[in-house]
User: What shape does this take?
Amino acid sequence: MSFTVAIDGPAAAGKGTISKGVSAHFGFAHLDTGLLYRAVGRRTLDGMEPVAAAQALAAEELGQGDLRTAEIAQAASKVAVIPKVRSALVDFQRSFATRPGGAVLDGRDIGTVICPEAEVKLFVTASAEVRAERRYLELSANGSDTTRAQVLQDVRERDARDAERSTAPMKPAEDAVLLDTSNLSIEAALAEAIAIVEDAKRKAF
Ligand code: CDP
Assistant: This one.
């Protein structure tokens, strides 16, 4: 039987950590759907046409090389506005979501477009400043020599592009639970998410 947890929200809100924690706690599979768009974005930086890149994407590529750079994040959000890029990635995400044993998917449009029937929908947010600081620390730890101001500008630009596009814009589903992590430790945010999933599981089974 399938059980889907959809976790959406803007850049660096804590979706990744919460998704990994929820999937580890319940033994669910996890798909970071941002990696799909990042992998397509990386191919376009190598000169490939975006729709062809999305149609040819293979799951193995998601684990190859470092997709979590600032340059690839911007390229990802540019290809993500193209409807044919998005539609090429739908089947893979939906079949992942309904695999037996439960699945967590995190992204921008999981609760609204990919899995509108998900048993749990969370929309994780935090202020742009808090998110930029988290992303700055992450990128610096990975050896990038970026600045706080640059990261804040990148985050704001990407949020605007993601929220304003006409196909599958980033927004909470009407029945999503909002989780603002601005003033929460990651442990506290994860504990809240686990409690919400626990509750939904009790109702579903
Ligand atoms: O980790 P972070 O939140 O910074 O970004 P990500 O989840 O890896 O996503 C990178 C980009 O892919 C986003 O800025 C979106 O433009 C796009 N994306 C999307 O459009 N839909 C998704 N379901 C996931 C990501």
